[in-house]
Amino acid sequence: MLDIIKEDVVISGIGAHFAKASNMEELKQRLYENQSQLTARWPQAAGGVCNMIGEVDSNHFDNSYFGIHRQQCTFMDPMHRLCLERTFEALLDAGVNPTEVRGKRIGVYIGSSIGENDNLFLESVVSGFGITGHSRAMMPNRVSYWLNLKGTFSFLFLLHTPTGEEV
C-alpha cells in the first residue's frame, strides 16, 4: 500500500515551445488560423524525401541564471537548455515561484527521446563537457541542481520504433 503523507503535493504546470510558436497561446492562435508550423529545408524534396521541418529556436539562453558555465553551455545539447527553460515556464504556469521551491524535497521526472544534436557530442568530447552536456539522463539532474532540490529524480528514455510505437 502506498503511504501518502498529507504534505505531498504535485506541482502541475506546462511549459511549451513549438516551431514558430514560443508558448501555448501562440500555438493555439496559429492552429486556429490554420497556419503551418513547418519550414522548408531546401527548395524541393529530393528523391521523395520530405523537405519540411519544424524548427525550434534555442539560441537564447541565460546560462548564469541556471548555474551553468558559459563554456559548458557552448557544448551542451540544446535539449538540455530547452528542458531548463520549459521547467521554469511550467513552474510559473503552476503558480509557483522557482525561488520558493529551492532546497525542498521535490522529485524531478523527465522523459525524452533521441535528439538530432547527437553529432555535437563528438565535438564536445574534446572540450571535456561531452558526457554531462549530452546525456539525456542529466536533464533531471540539471533541474535538481538549478533548484537545489532534495527529492528523487528519474529519466525515462522513449524509443520510437519504425511502426510508430513507443517502447
TrEMBL record:
<dbReference type="GO" id="GO:0006633">
    <property type="term" value="P:fatty acid biosynthetic process"/>
</dbReference>
<dbReference type="Pfam" id="PF00109">
    <property type="entry name" value="ketoacyl-synt"/>
</dbReference>
<protein>
    <recommendedName>
        <fullName>Beta-ketoacyl synthase-like N-terminal domain-containing protein</fullName>
    </recommendedName>
</protein>
<dbReference type="InterPro" id="IPR050091">
    <property type="entry name" value="PKS_NRPS_Biosynth_Enz"/>
</dbReference>
<dbReference type="InterPro" id="IPR016039">
    <property type="entry name" value="Thiolase-like"/>
</dbReference>
<dbReference type="GO" id="GO:0004312">
    <property type="term" value="F:fatty acid synthase activity"/>
</dbReference>
<feature type="domain" description="Beta-ketoacyl synthase-like N-terminal">
    <location>
        <begin position="7"/>
        <end position="151"/>
    </location>
</feature>
<dbReference type="InterPro" id="IPR014030">
    <property type="entry name" value="Ketoacyl_synth_N"/>
</dbReference>
